[in-house]
Design goal:
The complex is a heterodimer of chains A (about 160) and B (about 200). Chain A is an alpha+beta fold and about 160 residues long. Chain A has one domain: 2-Layer Sandwich (60s Ribosomal Protein L30, Chain: A). Chain A is about 20% helix and about 35% strand. Chain A has a five-stranded mixed beta sheet, with no helix packed on it. Chain B is of the alpha+beta class and about 200 residues long. The chains are: A alpha+beta (about 160), B alpha+beta (about 200).
């Protein structure tokens, strides 16, 4: 079951490992090596968002939103249950940064997360419409399924971009 | 992950000793008095990390815990961006608060973090009788949540909650607000607790 929905039009905050499905505004703050993944169906104006922390679940069943390999099928199933067709869903991916250069050299989780999500989307025939990943920068993301699935990204220096 | 009141007290005392040594070094570097909070122990669920650290811009100097326990977790020196400017201004004799942080600030922050965290670990390790060494430092100046989240993601032991153990160090004269935060792996925490319990038995 997805985490509880907020009242209509109230922005829902998605913490690490959490996900939501619906038409209400969703937001996740401070993505470092984590990935914010959105999926949107323009026909039904429905979307889903998840905050992924690691590439592999290694068989763990709890918190499927936390791992790329369980989160991608999870969002697809949730959207399918609401009547969305795979071929009409488009995905966007944000995050996957390497915040600490020294630690990043041999253990680039951000890059591995992004690579894993990219491969999974390809495998499941989900179109990756856009991505803003990598670098050494934190990102916060707002996702508006009710507003054409608009995705906005905010950075620590105050700059914002739409994806 | 639950700590008994006695265990929490013991860890708090350990943090007190470590933070007091770190505060002394900061006081010497700034030539000013440093106030120190009572160390706080928080068990934070990953999904709730955002309520503890948000989008605010902060400088964080992170060190991996090494020594007798390799990959023992992380210790970090955390300072808000505004405080970081005031601190390096004090050290470098500058006054402009609106300036961007440059390479010199970054070097100063890494050095301060290095000295403080080394003092913190020296004092706690001496008390515990086992060696905890900091790795080389890694600095980031960005969203606090993004930095913290990245450290948690690279912890060795998979977990849904982290134990954060933080002490606030403030300098009223220069309006500097900083924290030393320790985030041990679960096995490191268990080892520290076992050592503290042994000490209490023998004393």
């Amino acid at each position: 079951m997805p985490d509880p929905q907020p009242r209509i039009e109230q922005t829902s905050m998605i913490g690490i490992g959490e996900y939501r499905v619906g038409s209400f505004p969703m937001m996740t703050i401070g993505l470092g090596s984590c990935i914010g993944l959105t999926m949107y169906d323009p026909n039904l104006k429905l979307g889903a968002m998840v905050h992924i922390m690691l590439p592999e679940s290694a068989g763990r069943k709890e918190r499927p939103g936390k791992y790329a390999d369980t989160a991608v099928p999870l969002l697809m199933n949730e959207l399918a249950a609401m009547g969305c067709k795979n071929r009409s869903i488009t995905a966007k991916m944000i995050g996957g940064a390497s915040m600490f250069e020294y630690f990043g050299t041999n253990l680039n989780i951000g890059e591995r997360n992004a690579e894993k999500v990219r491969n999974l989307l390809k495998e499941h025939h989900i179109h990756l419409a856009a991505e803003d990943v990598g670098g050494k920068v934190g990102r916060s993301v707002t996702f508006l399924p009710g507003n054409d699935g608009k995705v906005s990204i905010r950075r620590a220096d105050g700059t914002s971009t739409d994806l | 992950m639950e700590l008994s009141p006695i265990q929490a007290d013991a860890i708090q005392e350990l943090g007190n000793i470590g933070a007091a040594h770190a505060a002394t070094t900061l006081s010497q570097m700034l030539g000013s008095t440093i106030e120190m909070s009572v160390p706080a122990i928080k068990v934070v669920d990953l999904a709730q990390l955002g309520t503890y650290m948000g989008e605010e811009s902060a400088a964080m100097v992170a060190f991996e815990l090494q020594g007798d326990i390799p990959h023992g977790g992380y210790v970090l020196f955390y300072i808000t961006r505004e405080s970081a400017v005031r601190m390096t201004n004090t050290m470098l004799g500058l006054t402009d608060l609106a300036r961007p942080l440059n390479e010199m600030d970054e070097s100063a922050l890494i050095e301060v973090g290095n000295i403080m965290v080394s003092a913190f670990l020296d004092a706690t390790a001496e008390l515990l009788g086992f060696i905890m060494l900091p790795s080389p430092p890694a600095l980031t100046i960005d969203m606090a949540h993004a930095a913290m989240q990245s450290l948690i993601a690279q912890m060795q032991e998979e977990t849904n909650e982290v134990l954060l153990f933080s002490t606030e160090l403030t300098c009223e004269e220069h309006r500097i607000d900083s924290d030393i935060i320790m985030m041990p792996e679960r096995s490191t925490l268990e080892k520290i607790i076992a050592l503290l319990e042994d000490m209490m038995k023998t004393s």
